[in-house]
Amino acid sequence: MTRRTRKITLSKIMAPAVVVALALPAGTAFAAQPHVVHTSAVKTDGSGAYLVGSGMYDITGAAAETGMLGYAASQEVDGLHMRLYSRAFVVADQKSGKRVAMVTTDMGAMFPSITSAVVAKLQQKFGDKYTPKNVLIAATHTHVGNSGMSGDRLYQVAGADSTSAGYDKKNFGTVVNGIVESISRAHTSLAPGTVQRSEGELKGATRNRSLPAHRANKNPGSEVDSSMTQLEFRRSNGQAVGVLNWFAIHPTSFSRKFTKLSGDNKGYASYMFEKQMGGDPDKAGSFVAAFANSAVGDVVPAQGNAHSAPGYGGSSDEYHNTHVAGEAQLGKARQLWAAQGQAQGGPVDFRSRHIDLRNYMVDAKYAGGKAVQLCKAARGFSFASGGENGPSKIPGMYEGMTRDSFSISDKIKKVIPSALGGLTRLAFAGVSALHQDKCHAEKPIPLPTGAWKMVSSVVQVQLVRVGNTAVLALPVEPTTVASRRLQERVAAELAGTGVNRVVIAGVANGYNGYLATREEYAAQHYEGASTEFGPFEFAAFEQEAAGLASAMKKGAAVSDAASPAGSFTAKTPARPGVLFDSKPAGQQFGQVLGQPSQSYSAGQVASAVFRAGHPKNDYRTMGSFLQVQRQEGGQWKTVRTDRDWDTTYAWKREGVAFSRATVQWRIPKGTPAGTYRLVQTGDWKNARGGKVSPYVGMSRSFTVR
Hints:
- Keywords: Hydrolase, Lipid metabolism, Metal-binding, Signal, Sphingolipid metabolism, Zinc.
- This protein is an alpha+beta fold.
- Helices cover 22% and strands 26% of the residues.
- Helix 8 crosses helix 9.
């Protein structure tokens, strides 16, 4: 049993607009214009220049009765589709001794509370080898990952569960420890090796969800960026170490109604690539495939999801939608791996700065000829509508609501007239009247996140170089055009250095909403309304990116303009732990309540139901809540666990303290015929003394034909 309390706060009253609309939808493309980011090429075989290492570790956390971060749709986790991982690569320059750690996590967003804790632990282990300047930690932006790790009130509310609890100390610790362990494994496995870069086009996998705003840009270019960039790591003897892949796509193939933890389409691509290469997270030095995101702003999967807005929907089969988007990325990545990429030559380098966006001064050069100051953080009305891949369905809310167009009666007629829609706009207008800020220009403000101290204004901008490749890490979701312009700026500043590709790493080292261009901001679609610090926020990031690139080219040092925002600024009530587990008289933990059928064929789903303990008793980190076993020579051999794509662990509370768990196996084509069984492993907590004990439940055997 867990304590289930409900606290009514102003933030929860605002939840229909704040939480549901937050939708953090991710996945912009950095429009494909290779000539923009290619400068002078440097020919080198790259042999012996670098030390390379890789590592991965489990960061799944609680698999039940916790919130999800992404859609902000009050999803409460009730099981596990796939385990979530931190995947890390360390590259060291043997000549200069400089190194960088590049990490990709199966998370909805990254926060300074996490990055600062990770670096602190790394320094306890490795001294000053790792600092905030040379450690890049990004989130894939899955929308069905765990929450409870942010230090900002807004994202605690966005990831709150049904009890209104938005902070989870144990989840936080699991993520921090997992990231540290993945970097530690990469550090320990460092050995002479090579880095190659491959590039290609993946067309038809994505579409732009905010075309009116995109087309408002001067020279908008292609609607999406179909380019894929992949760094490939090998030992000097040719042994495969791993790949770090960037492709812009929302990991929103699972919809806002899905409640099982998963890495979504990027998690699928990582899992399948690793499996095909013989990777095993339990083995040190095993192959690691990280599918990172890039400009996560206005691009969604072409396949859609089961609950997208009209015109953007996919199949009602959640797994099919995710498979389609993930398989597209996997196929292209494997094609790139098979080809000969460009060997990277040149130094490993990095620059980083923490800045305070509130009242940040933008030089005239970047702001249209006149110096400007950024605004106090705020979200606009169109933020409340949600994105097309995660619509909030709040009456009266739609994209494109500006100060000039806003009306209680909805004079634009964007929605069906209704009394509820009018009341919704009236309620928002009441807040807006108290917190309107001319600094935000076209944006009408229903949610003054800065004035209400719901978000931090201190962010980190980071530029990392590995050979001929530069990576600009941003704590925001840049749109397609915003990303392209930043690439152009950085490439121009680095001209002549040997860098011939600039990659955008979005949702990295922190999270502060979106980054729209000035033209897109004026249109006030979801992305513009979620650009928190006003119409010139893009100009501020362009100025910082140019400064970092210039300093890197000159070999000059840079210093922070603000103190890193690494601590929690606010905490909602902590999520409760398990008080105790119970079961009906005469039953045992692990007892089978529902047996699988006697036989199955490929394409069918085998399942069994067990009397279970609460999965919060033990997260089974680097373990599993289930096993699919095959009988071989009189012995049972495990062939699947809960990290596998085709299994699902589903948990359900019964009454006060009873739990039941369902183990599902979606039997894939090509499964060897034979005898199988389903196993559920877990832990239960005794009401007397609180002792936690493991249990195992095994189904009867069944055949796969």
